[in-house]
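User: Predict the complex with flavin-adenine dinucleotide.
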Amino acid sequence: MRYSILSLARNALSGNRGWRPAWRAAEPRDGYDVVIIGGGGHGLATAFYLAKNHGLTRVAVLEKGWIGGGNVGRNTTIIRSNYGLPGNEPFYEWSMKLWEGLEQALNYNAMVSQRGVLNLYHSDAQRDGFARRGNAMRLHGVDSELLDREAVRRMAPFLNYDQARFPIQGGLLQARGGTARHDAVAWGYARGASDLGVDIIQNCEVVGFLRDGSGAVAGVETTRGAIRAGKIGMAVAGNTSRVAALAGVKLPIESHVLQAFVSEALKPVIPGVITFGAGHFYISQSDKGGLVFGGDIDGYNSYAQRGNLPVVEDVCEGGMAVMPMIGRARLLRSWGGVMDMSMDGSPIIDRTPVPGLYLNAGWCYGGFKATPASGWCFAHLLATDLPHATATAYRLDRFRTGHLIDEKGQGAQPNLH
Ligand code: FAD
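Assistant: Here is the predicted structure with flavin-adenine dinucleotide placed in the model:
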């Protein structure tokens, strides 16, 4: 349904009784061609592209809680494609291109805002590393610009340029990077998939797998009964090891908590996203005015969606070191999400050793920006049994063969998110 200003006013005065849900609340059917476990950004995008690109509409997304209750609604909304390795860069750039057309594709305002992502550097060695990364991006046709200290100062005069430990020397800018409204991305994909015939089933936890005589998966056991499926795609982020264990699959993934913070609303001050990787701190400002920031993961494994106080202190120290004025702002709230940390910092989009069971996982801190390409490529794999051209390196067996895509530096620490 589309709303005019008048109908918005009418709905506001009538307690929004005229508003209809954006997607159908579907009841589970007996069977589907494809079942996606996990109604986060990746699961919903996969369902949307299965229907849109491959004409597969006998598809269900099973979500144990509610749409947007996982990391897709908990992240700090940063999108970028500033990776350095050939296994990663084409995939993340493909995602960026999809972001650039997403609102038209979904006819939904996801507030995609390309206001720039700036990674600060503090030493000659770090500058050389950033120059190499920027050059690798350019070789892939992706925008990047190495800025000196004065250029950074013009963009962000409020930073602490002369701190003794990490004096700011400059930064690597990706001007096409920025932010998107995270929960709107989930809602937009959910509405788009539902309109194309996909069943989105909330409060439906997968608790086991059905197998046929050959050992292949034939469906799932859920809290709302058994559901048969030709193929099953797992997109459960921080819960990946738990769900995979139900099928007897052990994965090279650990679950860790990552926290984020938002301040009271302030006048516009921060031009884009700024990351201070050396101090484990990054920040942007939401359209409402809140300073949105975060830092490193909590130091222990957990499936809890909340974090501990030492990391709160660590993140705030990082903020004070690079941007002392943050000390004047009042913190409004903080929250946590559970990361599916892979051992090389790069994701997995592949089949599993169990026939019929497919895996989308290992997104670490950086899976929000990947949402459109992840859904596109996972749908391609599920529909054709072949990896998409930009995701061929995301094989599960690379942890056994040693063909790692070791890009923790860009994908995760220290240039967070
Ligand atoms: P989720 O939204 O977590 O979806 C997985 C879903 O699976 C959940 O809804 C869960 O309830 C469901 N599920 C789990 N088990 C079952 C089951 N048994 N049955 C049915 N359903 C199940 N990335 C960026 O690119 N940029 C950022 O700025 C950024 N910042 C972040 C900040 C924080 C604080 C956090 C927590 C994450 C951040 N990330 C960021 C990472 C990003 O949010 C994740 O990598 C990405 O959202 C994961 O994919 P998803 O959206 O599908 O996950």
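The longest strand covers residues 253-265.
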